[in-house]
Each structure stands twice: as structure tokens, then as C-alpha cells.
Specification:
elongated, four-stranded antiparallel sheet
Length: about 210
């Protein structure tokens, strides 16, 4: 009989013992938790002004790699949204902005200056550097975040995940999840299990239709 036991848990990490589970199933859960759990990331960036030495593409890349806290209860993936819009809507997209203004000193713009229109979807840390500005330089940016999965791009990876077989039994494994901060480790496990269930149900429907 398959069972799960929490071995270790904190805000950044969870270790779950999977008992009585064949390795291939444990690895399936590992892959889903790594790349199949939807999280928010910045996907579109509009550079209104950029007088820094960093190219527009460089700033856009740095913004895309900032982990964003995610609320799966209120938002859905654009492909499943009724709006069917390329620009998205309030159910599938969140806008964030930076307006640095100008300064007479050299300073580093960090994720603390990335303001979000949503109270939840925002950077997991306010200490992530984005760009250095010399005196007189400034940036003004609109960025749009959406839910995505790591199968599409690494910026949507929810966590680092590993599976180790427990020496006591070939069907006992330790699943270790270290979150990037978008979701709690426990949320990633639960969402991963739900995702596998949905995929199996979809597979059953396909087979039944043959």
C-alpha cells in the first residue's frame, strides 16, 4: 500500500518519504513537481525608458528570472482563460512596474522597486538586483506576469526536486523539494499529486474513446 510520510518540513524545504511506491512513479512525481506545477513569472516586458548601460533585452531577462509569489486559487493559465486574449485579463495576468526616477548618485535597482497591481503576486524577495544606475540614468518599465510551467521555460520551475531510494526498501523513496519561493513546498507536493491525477484521468478518457 502506497503512503506518504513527512520527514522534514520548513518554509523552504520539504522531505517526503514515499512508501511502497515503484521508482518510476516516484520519478513521475518528481518531474511533475519540477516542471508541471504552474507558477507566475514575468513573460512580457515593455521598456518605456532605459538610459542604463544594460540593454533592454538584459533587463527583460533579469526580470523574467525573478521568482514571484503565486496564488493558484485566483488565477488560471492563459490557455484555460475565457478571455482568449493575447494580452490577458485580470484572471490570467498581473502587471508589475518600475519607475526609478533619476538620482544624483549611483544606485542599484532591486526587486523592492518592482511594484505589483496584485497584493500576492510579487517578488519573493526585495533584495534581487536588476540593474545599476549611474547619476542621471533611469528606467521605466511595465512587466506582465502569467502562469506557466517549467516544461515551457526554466523561469517557471517551481522548485529543485530530487528522489533518493531509501536503503531499507527498493520501493521506499525520499522526495526532497526546495522551493524557489513562488509556492510553499507543501503546496508544490499537493499540486503535483493533483496534476498527476488529472493527467491519468485524461489518459483514461483517451483510452476509453478508442
Amino acid at each position: 500500500m502506497v503512503s506518504l510520510e513527512i520527514v522534514e518540513q520548513n518554509e523552504q524545504k520539504i522531505v517526503v518519504k514515499l512508501k511502497g511506491m515503484p521508482l518510476q512513479y516516484a520519478n513521475a512525481l518528481r518531474r511533475v513537481c519540477l516542471t508541471g506545477v504552474p507558477v507566475f513569472a514575468i513573460d512580457d516586458v515593455v521598456i518605456i525608458e532605459n538610459s542604463s548601460v544594460l540593454a533592454d533585452e538584459g533587463i527583460a531577462h533579469r526580470l523574467a528570472m525573478i521568482p514571484l509569489k503565486t496564488d493558484l486559487a485566483r488565477f488560471i493559465e492563459p490557455t484555460n482563460c475565457d478571455c482568449k486574449s493575447e494580452v490577458g485579463c485580470t484572471h490570467c495576468r498581473v502587471m508589475l512596474m518600475i519607475d526609478s526616477g533619476s538620482s544624483d548618485t549611483t544606485r542599484t535597482i532591486t526587486s523592492a522597486e518592482l511594484t505589483s497591481e496584485d497584493d500576492v503576486v510579487k517578488p519573493v524577495s526585495d533584495k534581487i538586483p536588476i540593474v545599476d544606475l549611474a547619476p542621471g540614468q533611469k528606467i521605466k518599465i511595465e512587466a506582465y506576469a502569467r502562469l506557466g510551467r517549467g516544461t515551457e521555460h526554466a523561469k517557471w520551475n517551481a522548485a529543485t526536486v530530487s528522489v533518493l531510494t531509501d536503503g531499507g526498501s527498493p520501493e521506499d523513496h525520499l522526495l526532497t523539494i526546495e522551493t524557489a519561493g513562488a509556492l510553499s513546498p507543501a503546496q508544490i507536493v499537493i499540486t503535483g499529486v493533483d496534476e498527476i491525477t488529472k493527467r491519468l484521468e485524461g489518459f483514461k478518457q483517451v483510452i476509453s474513446a478508442l
